Amino acid sequence: MTPAQSAAASRDATKFIRDFHGVRYQSRDVARAIEFYTGHLGFKLEHQHLPDFATVSFGELKIHLSGPQASGSRPLPGGRTQEPGGSNRVPIGTIHVR
């Protein structure tokens, strides 16, 4: 992709992306992760559905903690298993234009 094509793609993307939803992080123990983020780093607990999932926030930043059984922990395309420390994703909010 040329620099001009990349710039055009970035301009087009801003028409579809409406916000930054947060970062999904894989965790083997969501309850322990909540304790770490809220107790040591000052995050606020937004939502929890233990043992599978929780969301913690710090200002506008949201971290979505996915345990081994959470839908966000499904295998990646090609079947590779997601693991803590190496399978993080950034979900963004989008606007679908027809």
Structure, described:
The protein is of the alpha+beta class and 98 residues long. It has a single domain (19-94), classed as 2,3-Dihydroxybiphenyl 1,2-Dioxygenase, domain 1, CATH 3.10.180.10. It contains two helices and six strands. It has helices spanning 3-13, 30-40, and strands spanning 17-20, 23-26, 44-49, 53-58, 61-66, 92-94. The chain has a four-stranded mixed sheet with strand order 2-5-4-3, with helices on one face. Strands 1-6 form a two-stranded antiparallel sheet. The longest helix has 11 residues, at 3-13. It is extended, with a radius of gyration of 16 Å. Mean pLDDT is 77; it is low at 92-98.
Helix content: 10-25%
Secondary-structure element series: HEEHEEEE
Mean pLDDT: 77
Look at the helices and sheets and give the structural class: alpha+beta
* Low-confidence region ranges: 92-98
**Main sheet record:** 4 strands, mixed
How large is the radius of gyration?
A: 16 Å
End-to-end distance: 26 Å
How is the CATH topology named? Answer: 2,3-Dihydroxybiphenyl 1,2-Dioxygenase, domain 1
Overall form: extended
CATH architecture: Roll
**Number of helix segments?**
2
Name the CATH superfamily classification.
2,3-Dihydroxybiphenyl 1,2-Dioxygenase, domain 1
Number of strands: 6
CATH class assignment: Alpha Beta
> What is the beta-strand fraction?
25-35%
Overall number of structural domains: 1
